[in-house]
């Protein structure tokens, strides 16, 4: 870390809970001031109170609907002129169920948040990073991006987009001082499955879910090492490698066993 009186600065979207909250804590532990952004102002306030800010580092909050263009613009304005050293594009939602039965408006909003909002924020903050020739971007994709995702068809597609968007961006920026890393977590112990209406799935009921703190530590280490991607834990690395090698139809059937409604009851 540079010798400066001003702490480094990180922005974490979706930072009020789950992996985003764990990323914020990890960055604070490494001496960053952190701005956490999410839609719910009360949740952000609760998160800020529980994060380990002190006289050396600060926790800042910004409430915005990042599925909307004006919400992302407002976040960018809130960042102001302060250089962003780390941008963790983590905000996202899921939705389980058969595509022909799920709510279209919920899926369109998911695309707006997971994809459009990520692209917009990466463009705005990334241009500033390139102008300074310094910065790191972390995109939270998913191990779901290694396979077709029945009963999470739209969610899985958004994570595929983030994976390859970030990898392409990394290649474009390889001769600059801006690093890009993709985080591809597996089943993690957050409220994701409840919010995605997947409590009754095998993935949702799984007992040995990954700890968000472990995911965040792996993500931070990979980002600082300028790795292209990170799949936390050996078992998940093996799962991702196998999924990449399997025929798509076989990989889709495996995912179906985890995500099909009612699969957690058998």
UniProtKB/TrEMBL annotation:
Keywords associated with the record: Oxidoreductase
GO molecular function: oxidoreductase activity
Transmembrane intervals: none
A Pfam match: adh_short
Protein family membership: Belongs to the short-chain dehydrogenases/reductases (SDR) family.
PANTHER family (alphabetical): ALCOHOL DEHYDROGENASE
Protein name (Swiss-Prot/TrEMBL): SDR family NAD(P)-dependent oxidoreductase
């Amino acid at each position: 870390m540079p010798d400066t009186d001003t702490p480094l600065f990180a922005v974490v979207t979706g930072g009020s809970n789950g992996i985003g909250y764990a990323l914020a804590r990890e960055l604070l532990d490494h001496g960053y001031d952190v701005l956490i952004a999410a839609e719910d102002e009360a949740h952000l306030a609760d998160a800020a109170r529980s994060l380990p800010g002190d006289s050396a580092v600060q926790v800042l909050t910004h409430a915005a609907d990042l599925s909307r263009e004006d919400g992302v613009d407002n976040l960018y304005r809130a960042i102001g002129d302060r250089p962003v050293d780390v941008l963790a594009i983590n905000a996202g939602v899921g939705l389980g169920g058969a595509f022909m039965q799920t709510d279209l408006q919920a899926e369109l909003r998911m695309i707006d948040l997971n994809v459009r909002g990520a692209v917009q924020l990466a463009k705005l903050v990334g241009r500033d990073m390139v102008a300074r020739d310094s910065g790191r971007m972390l995109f939270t994709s998913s191990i779901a991006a290694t396979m077709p995702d029945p009963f999470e068809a739209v969610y899985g597609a958004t994570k595929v987009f983030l994976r390859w968007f970030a990898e392409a961006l990394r290649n474009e920026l390889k001769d600059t001082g801006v690093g890009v890393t993709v985080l591809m977590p597996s089943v993690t112990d957050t409220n994701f499955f409840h919010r995605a209406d997947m409590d009754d799935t095998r993935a949702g009921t799984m007992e040995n879910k990954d700890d968000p703190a472990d995911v965040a530590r792996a993500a931070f280490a990979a980002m600082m090492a300028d790795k292209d991607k990170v799949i936390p834990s050996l078992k998940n690395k093996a799962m991702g490698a196998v999924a990449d090698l399997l025929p798509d139809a076989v990989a889709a059937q495996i995912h179906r066993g985890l995500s099909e409604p009612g699969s957690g009851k058998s």
